[in-house]
Prior knowledge:
41% of the residues lie in helices and 23% in strands. It is of the alpha+beta class. The chain has one domain: Beta-Lactamase (2-Layer Sandwich), CATH 3.30.450.
Amino acid sequence: MAKETRESMLQTLALERMTEHTITSADALLKECVAIGKQGYSLDRQEFIPGLIALAVPVYDRDTQLRGAIAVHAPIARLSVEGALKHLAMLKHAANRMGHQL
């Protein structure tokens, strides 16, 4: 998404608190989006549902167009954020294989 489009959209969103970890500031969410773009993956650190984490990576097609994402969700009691990140390479590999099918 173009920077201007992203910033405009973020300013119009109603950022409702879902958990104590939810990002509710447009500026903080913008910083998170920039970090996600740089690192190539996103984490949900109990921001939407208490006790649930997620790790997601983008799926690009052969023309490098973003087509979707693949994610793993787990209860924090079974998988920590650090534990999820240990599977990042495998998740990226799966996303790459999916993208080659598009």
